[in-house]
Write a structure and sequence with these properties.
- By secondary structure, the chain is of the alpha+beta class.
- Helices cover about 30% and strands about 10% of the residues.
- Helix 4 crosses helix 5.
- It has a single domain, classed as Muramoyl-pentapeptide Carboxypeptidase, domain 2, CATH 3.30.1380.
- The protein has a 5-stranded mixed sheet with strand order 2-4-5-7-6, with helices on both faces.
- The chain is globular, with a radius of gyration of 17 Å.
- It binds the ligand C[C@@H](N)C(=O)N[C@H](C)C(=O)O and zinc ion.
- Zinc ion binds next to strand 5.
Length: about 240
């Protein structure tokens, strides 16, 4: 996939102050798997599944049971005209690895002087590295946005999954370079998800999780509830 955009010189893409998923502070958090199953998110009057992902592979709409409950509750707390639109929940490890290494390759072309460690760190602003328990592979994480009920998505300042380079860092939750309306919309999303105990990955306004290592870091819990998992295979009669 080739994308045309320029690396912005005026914004520090390193943002040293942010704790990224590649940070040992995250990977060193212990995981005590609770054994909760994955369930498939079903559309409701306030929560829909983006057809692009649903069509690729319906497993992408699986999440842990508590995550699903939190999402439905969050969706019910939205103003009546709005719904949550889900892009991606659980994902297989193979896809996670592909996303990560494809992005490292893309960055290698942009940051010509960067060493491999730095490229990995920069990549982890956008994709979880495969050597941790990647939040989506644990079923703890979900990528989502706000939309009008049965209508278009709201302006959130960038599209879902626009990388830091592609969006000029506007994908960072606290970006000052988005419109007032987009900032208000991000606040609505944050309010309903935080009220249900979700944590945001600060480099991606659309990425929220519960029960994984990053969530532990944000809320100060001592161990994560979810390690890597897979949807259960239907039994063969
Ligand atoms: C690739 C992007 N949609 C995403 O999910 N990023 C997070 C950080 C992840 O890979 O867990
Ligand atoms: Zn995500």
């Amino acid at each position: 996939m080739t994308k045309n955009f320029e690396v912005r010189e005026d914004i520090d893409p390193k943002r040293e102050s942010l704790v990224l998923l590649s940070d040992p502070k995250i990977s060193s958090i212990p995981i005590s798997e609770c054994g909760e199953h994955l369930v498939r998110l079903e559309p409701s009057s306030k929560l829909t599944i983006d057809p692009k992902f649903g069509e690729v592979d319906t497993r992408y709409s699986f999440v842990r049971i508590s995550v699903a409950k939190g999402l439905y509750r969050a969706s019910e707390a939205l103003p009546s005209e709005l719904e949550l639109r889900i892009y991606e929940g659980w994902r297989p490890r193979s896809i996670q690895e592909r996303y990560f290494y494809d992005f490292v390759d893309e960055l290698r072309g942009m940051y010509k002087d960067a060493q491999e460690d730095e490229l990995n760190r920069l990549a982890s602003r956008y994709v979880a590295p495969p050597w941790i328990a990647p939040p989506h592979v644990t079923g703890a994480a979900v990528d989502l946005t706000l939309a009008y009920v049965d209508g278009p998505e709201l302006d959130m300042g960038t599209k879902v999954n626009e990388s830091p380079e592609e969006s000029g860092m506007r994908c960072y939750m606290d970006s000052n370079e988005i419109s007032d309306e987009a900032r208000r919309n991000r606040k609505v999303l944050s309010r309903v998800l935080k009220a249900q105990g979700f944590a945001n990955y600060p480099t991606e306004w659309w990425h929220w999780s519960m029960g994984d290592q990053y969530w532990c870091f944000i809320y100060g819990h001592s161990s994560a509830r979810y390690g890597e998992t897979k949807p259960q295979q239907p039994s063969v009669a």
